[in-house]
Specification:
six-stranded antiparallel beta sheet, 14 strands, four-stranded mixed beta sheet, alpha+beta, AbiGi
Length: 231
């Protein structure tokens, strides 16, 4: 089997899953990355929605690093919404070094437009491997996730900052009960865009199926009721 599929997966936890299903929206949230980390800066957080392009058969224990629940969207939906594969970089690669040089020159110029254009590529970059604090992995291989993400435009998030340094990221979360979500900004979908819902247990499966039944949703029927599966 090839290492991609026609289903794009969004991992989450149970409260996130039910909120997403009720509102029919994937919410933008600030995600702290160490792509621009240094001795003085732990990283930078861009707003984004992340999916992964892996067949479900490739989900091992390490691939459930972001929650034990998942929504499977059609690839067609992801393409239409503008999701794009992440650019995985080696820390000492010439490509990454050139991007850093371009960013430095932009800051030296003092031109806000140039700075925004120079920093934008970093919102779609990720190191091939590095620490994953959520699961306390010292050297997690991000490259294996085949991440696809959507970063909103500056105009698309109202008065929210386009990025946060690590200090302001923590302040933002502290001021929002631990959440890094950007209010109600996000990516809408219809239930017809969903291909699968993966839950943690049989009890969860019944709960989600009943939710869809209350919505009188055609996502579930006698022919496709197995689209809600437990792990």
């Amino acid at each position: 089997m090839g290492l991609s599929s026609n289903v794009l997966w969004h991992q989450t936890k149970k409260p996130g899953l039910m909120n997403i299903l009720k509102t029919k929206k994937l919410y933008f949230s600030y995600c702290l990355e160490d792509i621009l980390g240094s001795e003085r800066l732990k990283g930078i957080a861009f707003p984004m929605v992340s999916l992964c392009d892996l067949p479900l058969s490739e989900f091992g224990a390490g691939k459930w690093a972001y929650g034990n629940y998942a929504l499977g969207f059609s690839r067609k939906w992801g393409v239409e919404k503008g999701f794009n594969p992440v650019c995985y970089c080696l820390r000492d690669s010439e490509f990454f070094t050139n991007q850093i040089d371009n960013l430095g020159k932009a800051f030296d110029s003092g031109n806000v437009d140039l700075i925004e254009k120079a920093i934008y590529p970093f919102s779609y970059m990720k190191f091939v491997e590095g620490p994953l604090l959520k699961k306390r992995y010292v050297n997690y291989r991000f490259y294996d996730e085949k991440e696809i993400r959507l970063v909103p435009t500056i105009e698309g998030i109202g008065d929210y900052p386009y990025f946060l340094d690590d200090i302001n990221y923590e302040k933002y979360k502290n001021n929002n009960n631990g959440s890094s979500v950007l209010g109600t900004y996000g990516v809408p979908f219809e239930y017809t865009d969903l291909k699968y819902v993966i839950v943690e247990s049989e009890q969860n499966r019944i709960e989600v199926q009943r939710f869809f039944q209350r919505q009188k949703c055609r996502f579930l029927s006698h022919r496709n009721s197995d689209k809600v599966s437990d792990t």
